[in-house]
What we know:
- There is one protein chain.
- The chain is of the alpha/beta class.
- The protein has 10 helices and 11 strands.
- Helix 1 links the parallel strand 2 and strand 3.
- The N and C termini lie far apart (41 Å).
- The mean pLDDT is 96.
- Keywords: Lipid metabolism, Lyase.
Amino acid sequence: MPDLVLTSYEGGVVVVTINRPEARNAVNRAVADAVAEAVDELDARDDLAVGVITGAGGTFCAGADLKALAAGERSGIPGRGFCGITETPPAKPLIAAVEGYALGGGTELALACDLIVAAENASFGLPETRRGLIAAGGGLVRLPRRIPYAVAMQYALTGAFLPAGRARELGMVNELTPEGGALAGALALAREIAANGPLAVRASKRIVAESADWTAGEVWARNRAACEPVFASADAKEGARAFAEKRAPRWSGR
C-alpha cells in the first residue's frame, strides 16, 4: 500500500500531500492521523517555518471517506477535528494548494489553513445539506469569516459549488494560478513567509487569527502579551542589525 500522506521538505517549508487520488483524496482516520503527525512536526522543528497541504492527482480533497464512515470509522481525531487539524491548526502558517475539487471536508480543510492558493479549475463547496447532512468540521464557522455573511449563508444553505475565481473575488482565495500551478504558487508564497523572522511570523498569525474574538477591554493587553516577546528577542535585534548593514538577516528563532 502506498503512503496515504507524503511529506517533502524544501528551504524551511514542508509539503504535506494527501495521497489517495483513486478516492479523490477523501479522508479516513489513517489520513487524519498522518496529517496531524505532519503538522505536529512542523510546529516542533526549528528548521521548518511554513507548511503547505495539497492533494495528489489533480484533486485537493473530496471530504470525508463515506465508505469508511459507513463502516463506523471517523475522518477526524477527537479534540483535533477533521483531518486532524480543523479544530487545532498549527501555530506556524499553513497554506492550502488547491487543484480540482475541495468539497465538504475538503473546503473545511482549506479554510483551516491560513492562506489558500487555488488553480483556476478549482471548486469549493459545502454540499452536505444536499445529502441531509451538515458541515460539522468548521466550514460553517469559518466561511462567514472569510467571505461576506450573506454569500456564505447562500453557499451553506444551497450546497452550491464556489468556483475558485469567484472565491478569489470574495477574498477567500489569496492567489489564483493556471491549472496545475497551485503547488508552485503556494511554495512561492511559503518561501516569502519563511524568509521572515519566525517568532514575528508566529505571533502575527496568532494575533490575526485570534483578535476577532477579543473583547474591547482585553484587546490591547492581549496584543501586548503577544508582541512583547518578539520585541525582546534576539531575532528583533538581528533584524535591525541586518537592515543597518544592508544584508539578509540570520534568524535564530530566539
